Amino acid sequence: MNLIRYILFPFVPLYHFITWLRNKLYDLGVKKSSSYPFPVICVGNLSVGGTGKTPMIEYLINLLKKDYKVATLSRGYKRKTEGFQLANKTSNAETIGDEPFQFYSKFKNDILVSVDADRNNGIKTLESIKNPPEVILLDDAFQHRKVKAGINILLSTYSNPYFSDFTLPTGNLREPKSGATRADIIIISKCPHNLSDEKKQAFIKKIHPKKHQQVFFSSIEYSNRVFSETDSKNIKELPKFTLVTGIANALPLVKFLKYKNLDFEHLNFKDHYNFTQNDIDELNNKALIITTEKDFMRLKQYEPLKRKLYFLPIEVSIDKETLFNNKIKNFLQNA
Questions:
Q1: Assigned CATH class of 224-312
Q2: Is 308 annotated as a binding residue?
Q3: I need a labelling partner for 115 at 20 to 30 A (CA). Which of 75, 95, 245, 286 fits?
Q4: What is the pLDDT of residues 71-126, one digit of tens each?
Q5: Annotation-wise, does 54 bind a ligand?
Q6: Domain spans of the chain?
Q7: pLDDT tens, residue by residue, 31-56
Q8: 3-220+325-334 under CATH 3.90.1300.10, yes or no
Q9: Does the annotation place 49 within a ligand binding site?
């Protein structure tokens, strides 16, 4: 925790109270939440960034796309457009945001991808289109309480669980940890592989889940290949490269690449970073660039980088996967 965050600690009770009061007004029905006559699944967190929402959305897409017409609805963080946007062949990271563009690039033939800061307007617009979706996945909408989702999935990282954190500005929580009681499913994400049952039980004890809640643990699985738009390479055969990241927490990726004994330098930018022309000129001097899939969505538009730019895909692995999948499918069947 840096010095500025320590200095701002006196403001924590004020932020805590304001966000607690907002939630209480929703709980009491003073502020209204809208429900919808079709399934809406919310994926979110209590903390700011870096909990693995994007791979979780992709997990759900892969789980549901064969049996349902799926749509994703995101805010479209840092996009240069406003209002509702439905992704199409002219879309890019600037028009819909890097994460929605990642969904569209991977699943454009299977799902609808949309963005709208006003989630209610986004849902109503999706409902009104020809051949509307049968299920909507709300990305990063746990605090967006104007929509009452049918099922709420809350993510919290193993290295920084919400129950050990403070609210902003000293900690990373967007709202008090009591907000976790709204979740139907709590997933402790980015866990070490082969996490023992004893440690899982210790986490569950600290979470103290309510009767309606189930707790799962997930890990990140890295691919053994990196991909460009036209090519792929085995990571074991990579020469020295430059790792470029603009994500909330690049440490797990760096640890994985070091574990593989790869030779690389790391250029680390802030989350959702907008690369400047100077950045692109510097990167153009690199022989080989490896990046995350999200960063690839923003960097691939630059023609000079295309022949040297590759991304490393990731997937989510969930313990008790069958139980988790059945919970989601049972919700949809009974919605």
A1: alpha beta
A2: no
A3: 245
A4: 999 999 999 999 999 999 999 999 999 999 999 999 999 999 999 999 999 999 99
A5: yes
A6: 3-220+325-334, 224-312
A7: 999 999 899 999 999 999 789 999 99
A8: no
A9: yes
